[in-house]
Amino acid sequence: MIHCEGLVKIFKTEDLEVVALQGLNLNVQQGEMMAIIGNSGSGKSTLLNILGGLDRPSAGQVNVGGWDLLKIRDDQLVEYKRNTVGFVWQNNARNLLPYLSALENVEMPMLLTGKLDRAYARQLLEWVGLKDRMHNKLHQLSGGEQQRVAIAISLSNRPKMLLADEPTGSVDTATSDQIMNIFRQVNRELGITIVIVTHDLALAGKVDRVVAIRDGLTSTEFVKRNPNLDLASIDSGVGALQEVHEAFVVVDRVGRLQVPKEYLDAVGIGGRASMEFDGDKIIITAPKTLEGENNNES
Ligand SMILES: Nc1ncnc2c1ncn2[C@@H]1O[C@H](COP(=O)(O)OP(=O)(O)O)[C@@H](O)[C@H]1O
Ligand SMILES: [Mg+2]
């Protein structure tokens, strides 16, 4: 369903280039329900927006359901978004219409594409457990219920793939479990491929596979080293841990590079570091002065 190879996304602003994805590889099988985990700023949303056709890649290969998203024309992209992808965000309330009922909210995108299917709209609301609340106005529903309406809406165009960016980011644990169960159910019943982006490691045990992303690279090495990750909770992801990637960092035009926080923590580098050049290596270490002296200086 998804094939990314050497995927690069660079955001250019006035004086700086941010390399959000730096040659990312990812393969997702049709019908798979998988999670992408990673810290804030690691490029998860950037990846999802590219997969969803909301943003264009800069370089590399990205093919989803037979579409080449690097070469796709604008008019094809509209068709791609309409027929291939469903999207769920962390905070969907903004995209919902508060004074319409749950059912009317699900029917709205169907009306917009001229494919109103009332029976299917009801079916979707039943799937997300809102059979008895479908005639309630949206503003009468709780946050978790609204999130479930949003999931029903994301499925209203019968997409082949569902992309969810932090879908449980602003709900409590019980609602989060419920949402994950809904994803599992639609994955089984509709055979739909589901990619869930999260920084919540607890969700890892509820999907078929977990891929970790760090600094715009999918890196299984990260999974292995992250002390917070309970490896026992990742079933089929464990096989992938055998392979270790070399981690690359990008050095920008003025020579800045980002050192992974865990490296800095491991050698105890806080605000300052000392740097040596030995002819073919650059060595970054914790300053030789004592912490206390640093504090006095600053
Ligand atoms: N539109 C943009 N313009 C410039 N930089 C961006 C833009 N979107 C994201 N970035 C940068 O790209 C990196 C990855 O961001 P993002 O994909 O949102 O990470 P995540 O979703 O994992 O928190 C961050 O350094 C972020 O600041
Ligand atoms: Mg994000």
Automatic annotation (TrEMBL):
Residues 2-240 form the ABC transporter domain. Keywords: ATP-binding, Nucleotide-binding, Transport. GO terms for molecular function: ATP binding. SMART domains: AAA. InterPro entries: AAA+_ATPase, ABC_transporter-like_ATP-bd, ABC_transporter-like_CS, ABC_transpr_LolD-like, MacB-like_ATP-bd. Pfam families: ABC_tran (PF00005). This is ABC transporter ATP-binding protein. It comes from Paenibacillus brevis.
